[in-house]
Amino acid sequence: xxxxxxxxxxxxxxxxxxxxxxxxxxxxxxxxxxxxxxxxxxxxxxxxxxxxxxxxxxxxxxxxxxxxxxxxxxxxxxxxxx
Length: 82
Prior knowledge:
Blueprint: E1 17-20, H1 23-33, E2 42-44, H2 48-53, E3 60-67, E4 71-80
Subunit structure: Part of the RNA polymerase complex.
Protein name: DNA-directed RNA polymerase subunit Rpo5
Family: Belongs to the archaeal Rpo5/eukaryotic RPB5 RNA polymerase subunit family.
């Protein structure tokens, strides 16, 4: 049997760009939108993109999505345990 192929979920054309934001960026995000961390949409720590990023519960992921009408927009999700 040949060696296992490496696969990155980020190489797929339908998967948008993801990144873990810093603590400073997280605080600014919450302040800008006047929300609490618990009010962000959630993403499970077992999500393939989260695993590949090495994010842990409590981190916030910024997702850069493309839109035919809005161009590019940012979406934020809180990493939670399964």
